Amino acid sequence: MAGYTVVKLTEVEDKAVAFGLSPGLESRFAREPLELENSGMSLFRLAPGFRTPFGHRHARQEEVYVVVEGSVRAKLDDDVVELGQWDAIRVPPETVRCLEGGPEGGRFLAFGAPNVGMGDAEPIPGWWSD
């Protein structure tokens, strides 16, 4: 039996559709399809200027975001950070974060560890408002 799992991230179900956030957001949570035991990984796409309608923080999970295409703005507590292609940012669990697509939109990977399941995240609706 093989000790690895191969998944095409663009074929993982887009959960943003079910929550009415498409086409501004694409969110493909790959933790289960990849059979990850100790971490999590997701692929996101934000349309130009689209801001997720909620911030969130975690109880235990640290995250790393890597922009692979376009650009993204991230609000991290009181700071707003501009991220371009191949920029990576680590976000500790307790930091509230929210992301917005840059002028041309952005695609990014999110990695989280440890794998604590969905109950670790605390969503904060409407957290980033101008």
Model description:
It is a single chain. This protein has one helix at 15-18; strands at residues 25-29, 40-46, 54-58, 62-76, 79-84, 88-91, 97-113, 121-125. It is mainly β and 130 residues long. It has one domain (9-125): Jelly Rolls. The model has no long low-confidence stretch (mean pLDDT 96).
Which helices and strands, and how do they pair?
Elements: H1 15-18, E1 25-29, E2 40-46, E3 54-58, E4 62-76, E5 79-84, E6 88-91, E7 97-113, E8 121-125
Antiparallel strand pairs: 1-2, 2-7, 3-8, 4-5, 4-6, 4-7
The portion of residues forming beta strands comes to over 45%
Radius of gyration from the alpha-carbon trace, in angstroms: 14 Å
What summary fits the major beta sheet? 6 strands, antiparallel
Overall body shape: globular
List keywords for this structure.
1 helix, 3% helix, mainly beta, 8 strands, globular, six-stranded antiparallel sheet, 49% strand, Jelly Rolls, 130 residues
Question: What is shown here, in short?
Answer:
The protein is built from 1 helix and 8 strands. With 130 residues, the protein is mainly β.
